[in-house]
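How it folds:
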Amino acid sequence: MAQLPEIHSESLLDYLSTSVLVFDRDFRLRYINPAGEVMFAQSHRHAHGKAINELFANPGQLTTELGSVLASGQVVSQHGCRLELTNGLAVVVNCTHTPVSLSGGLSGIMLEMQKVDHQLRVEQEEQLIAQQEATHSLLRGLAHEIKNPLGGLRGAAQLLEKEIPDSELREYTRIIIGEADRLQNLMDRMLGPNDVPNIQAVNIHQILERVRELVLVEADSGLRINQDYDPSLPDLMADPDLLVQAVLNIVRNAAQALEGRGKIILRTRVQRQFNIGNRQHRLVACIEVIDNGPGIDAALQAKIFYPMVTSRSDGTGLGLSIAQSLINRHHGLIECNSKPGETVFTILLPLENGT
């Protein structure tokens, strides 16, 4: 048998989002990484040395599988395993059992567990990022094709206006010029800002407070915006103006859904060893905009970030699309979950981003 890798607690396993547990041949825990600590709600110090039946409420089948791996020396992978934890929770995970050599020459088994819902979220985020990139490329091409004839149309209308002596007839050319300008502004809004971001250290709570003040000034007295901030959240590297615009679009959207009466919560938290798409970040700022409005129709949620998609008759459907594009420029992502009585827009921004 080939020499097995030796596992040390001080290793790259600490940085994985996958839960990793290492058991000795007596099925007692020798190591658990930070992601595993989160899953089991136990620290390494508290969990170390525990028997497998002290961690899992249904250890029988798992013990048999780990024993088989230990005896054969073969790596075994399983999908969709349901594991019941002793804290009463149950998780569905994809498992990999790997025989390893522990310090001191002892044999052991490494158990890697990745939640299925986590994998689905990563796939959904990757799809959302790809859709956003494809949509933005399509809009740029479309805008280029529209702007050229639009400029010619506006110029011709201006020349025609000078040649028409009748003021009533000139009113028609003014309509043409005005509509051409409106279409030009619409194209610019769809594309969003094109300037290079002005990256600097930003306090996200200052951004949220500025947005809160702006929306409260615009809104009716029946709207409340409450803060639930994590004071430990460090500064992030970002363009403050772009962040204000992105968050403002989301909060305004929530205020409009409430029709001036209801509650919005602005919440911040820090996520550690967190994935945005398939890229893992050591620290991620999680900013939530929560409203208690009627919710978003399920059919609309899947395309809520597409341009020109809106449930309001007077809306352009550009606010959320632009917000997503601005956050994408910071290597982040906006997610949406909604049900009647609660809609949550979650902005995810990597804290180590300095580009």
Observations:
- Residues 52 and 331 are 40 Å apart (CA to CA).
- The longest helix spans residues 116-163.
- The mean pLDDT is 81.
- The first strand starts at residue 19 and ends at 24.
